[in-house]
Amino acid sequence: MAQKYRIAHIGTGYTGSIALQHILRAPHLQLVGHLVHSRDKAGRDSGELAGLPEVGVRAVDSMADFLRLDADCVTYFASWAGRDSDEVIDQLCAILASGKNIVTPSYNPLFDPLSLDGTSREKLRSACRHGASSLFATGIAPGFTSDILAVHAASMSELPTKISVQERIPCGAYRVPGFFSALGFGRTPEQDAQMYQPGAMIGHFAPPLRLLARGVGWTLDDICEYRDVAIAERHYSFDAGQIPAGTIASVRMRFDGIVDGQPRLHFSSIWSMPDEAVDDWLPVISPGSASRRLTRITVDGNPPIQVDFALNGGELPGSTATAARVLNAIPAVCAADPGVLSALELVVAAQASPTSPLPQ
User: Fold this and answer.
1) Strand segments (E) across the chain
2) What is the reported pTM?
3) Which one, 27, 69, 166, 343, has least CB within 10 Å?
4) What angle do CA 74, 75, 81 make, to 5 degrees?
């Protein structure tokens, strides 16, 4: 019989709730605890909070009670937006020191542990040693499509000279509070130019770029950030907000990783509210298509390589894929030597259901 892992969960936001549903359905995972941060959720059954039947696990709002749980791994889906970095690191350290491994899509510097400041990195390593535990951060982007998948692609080319990762994310179904205004949708280009702070997104995307560079034997000297906007020619209406004609409907963030004075790594992410074409930056996913997220990886080398990677179906398949990638890492993380791990050191395998029938 396959090993069963005792899981303690944190996070009931959009992706955290998807992860909680996955945990409750997975035959190799057993939910033993659940930490929440709002009083109205404390004491409620975790199944109810996930939109599923009750499972007999009550959510708690006390970190002290949570740390006393007997769990193999904590699935840490708490948001770090608006939180002090030291608070996040201290919470992770407390969990690790209590003897629990952690898998998480949160806190971007963790995607490349060497991107952490020295103090935070040593605190986490010390907590791992104390608790004989490990920490691993992963997801979709940042994570996997922006780093490790490109490393795998480049391994098929002799002495690659440049690697490019481009992604298009249709956002019309996004209803996350603050998302619409944060990206500048519905603003005029003039308003956007006044509000945009150059370099503000480098901290978000630098860790996977550094990990990608290390994966192919490069060291980044610098990372340059650029922002492009595309304008709506007609009015659009979404649950998240209105986009009048003449305002921003699509945003592209571009990053160049500089190696020996040359831009050798390129990453760009396109967020577009309409499914239809309002820009010509990357092939547009056709309205009604099963594809909801497209990533294109190109490698200049011998031979040149192009990989198109799509997530299909559903409103936000990136969230579902992120949750799956994190949870599928649990067996490998629990088996790993204590420490702060990166995707270059860990093979994440899918945990397939032994009882699911094959599609007809």
Assistant:
1) 5-10, 29-35, 73-76, 101-104, 134-137, 158-170, 222-231, 236-238, 241-243, 248-259, 262-272, 291-302, 305-312, 339-341
2) 0.91
3) 27
4) 115
Phi, psi of 298 (to 5 degrees): -125, 140
Q: What is the pLDDT of residues 86-143, one digit of tens each?
A: 999 999 999 999 999 999 999 989 999 999 999 999 999 999 999 999 999 999 988 8
Higher pLDDT, 43 or 178: 43
Q: What are phi and psi of 178, to 5 degrees?
A: 85, -15
Contact between residue 318 and residue 294 where contact means Cβ atoms under 8 Å apart: no
Whether residue 194 is predicted with pLDDT greater than 70 in this model: the reply is: yes
Q: In Å, what is the CA distance from 339 to each residue of 48, 97, 171?
A: 34, 11, 36
| 8 A C-beta contact, residue 46 and residue 59 | yes
Structure tokens at 122: 């040593």
Residue type, position 225, single letter: E
Inter-residue contact 24 to 53 (CB < 8 Å): no
DSSP code per residue over 197-215: -TTTTHHHHHHHHHHHHHH
Token pair listed for 50: 């996930």
> By C-alpha distance, which of 171, 210, 211, 208 is closest to 315?
171
Of 137, 126, 129, 15, which is closest to residue 74 (Cα–Cα)?
137
Are 49 and 59 in contact, with CB atoms under 8 Å apart?
yes
Q: Which residue from 104, 153, 89 is spatially nearest to 342, judged by alpha carbons?
A: 104
